[in-house]
Amino acid sequence: MTDKPKVLRETDDEARKLARLVLREQRSAAMAVVEPGSDGFPFVSRVLLGFDLDGAPVILASRLATHTQALLTDTRCSLLAGRMGKGDPLAHPRITVQCEGEPVTQTDPRYPLMRARFLRRHPKAQLYIDLPDFLFFHLAPMRASFNAGFGRAYALAGNDLLITSSALEEIATAERLLLDELRSNADAVKHLIADDPEPVTPAWQVTGIDSEGVDLALGDAFRRVVFPRQVENAAELHAMFVKLYR
Amino acid sequence: MTDKPKVLRETDDEARKLARLVLREQRSAAMAVVEPGSDGFPFVSRVLLGFDLDGAPVILASRLATHTQALLTDTRCSLLAGRMGKGDPLAHPRITVQCEGEPVTQTDPRYPLMRARFLRRHPKAQLYIDLPDFLFFHLAPMRASFNAGFGRAYALAGNDLLITSSALEEIATAERLLLDELRSNADAVKHLIADDPEPVTPAWQVTGIDSEGVDLALGDAFRRVVFPRQVENAAELHAMFVKLYR
Questions:
Q1: Which CATH number is associated with domain A1-162?
Q2: Which fold has domain B165-246?
Q3: What is the rounded CA–CA span in Å between residue B77 and residue B55?
Q4: From chain B, which residues contact A within 8 Å (Cβ)?
Q5: What is the band of B21 on the pLDDT scale with cuts at 50, 70, 90?
Q6: Taking the model in full, what pTM does it have?
């Protein structure tokens, strides 16, 4: 016996993969926190969504915002990210991720990488990212609930959304070098995602590379190409790129 | 001295009106509740949004859903509803409403009206609304936070989102009769919203009438026409319609 509700389906790799994509491809999310001074009232607001190299969601926040004051007091938060489209909003996949938020301020050694990755994804954040009241929160996923549409609900562990690798720093360096290479080779993206069923043009910009895949942006749209297998170091990452776009 | 953060603007009638429209015109919202058995962790999920005659948000929920179990234990919830569009998601207006949820089950005297209004707004909910595990929650707004875009934040009282009238039942009866009349006069809608700057066609369907205005739907889009002044009884409502669409 488990206390898992009967409405949940068995979580398989396909569900995990779709859940990660649905989370990853959103520009913004709804984030719920515990409202400061409310004795436990939930409070939900809109946030821009970025991702750390380990796959954890990252948000940029002003200290003036309610959700920032909340997270600095009670680290628990819940993110809702999902696709929208025509017809019933409940027919489109979305994911709720229960997270623990950790502040990453401008003096934190992790800050420069987080800032660079966030700005590639959200270039307009340049307007305010360096104001003194802004900071990041790294949202470590504890567990998640993925709803792929009516009657298709799955429970996920926090690790299902994370990239487990001992080489995150090495990959971060490799990411910087690869991004430079891609900038001088505009067609590379087209080859990179040639396997994807959706039409792609070289206009897609690479916003991030990690050991599991590549994030791309075109205007307001985001997409992600997942590698056939996770890479474990810079050499494997380079080899994966050579293999994918030659 | 007040403890109001300096980032808040003075709330005026224009802000209240826009806040009500932004809430009212959404198909769905993110609703945060206190996760059951979590010792206070927030939990946010997607809900279809309807409205009661008093202007309070209404959601339809299955007893199998986490948010239903949550609201049956702790009535406190937070709704995020907002416009989306091109560019930065934080540039578009959205509202956070702190609510107390009250269950309205299928045997409740308020249920038939709530069901009829919800189905006019969300016809596809017909597929599951009568399943035995479904119920409504009337979400009474306690207070709200309206963000009209960068640097334009306002604090609202719960009453700013409600329609205060002693004639809600009389208006409900008048709504039913008016809806019948409108069904036999397809052009009425066009006249009704002739003052609106956006182009309108008779294809817009009236989904609800209350003492403050009219809700309309066309495909996935919702809009609302607000009366020049609130009506207080059925006679005034009829007179308002005669005035508006002749």
A1: 2.30.110.10
A2: Split barrel-like (3.20.180)
A3: 17
A4: 5, 7, 27-28, 30-35, 40-46, 48, 64, 66, 74, 76-80, 82, 84, 86-90, 94, 96, 98, 122, 124-125, 128, 145, 147, 219-220
A5: very high
A6: 0.93
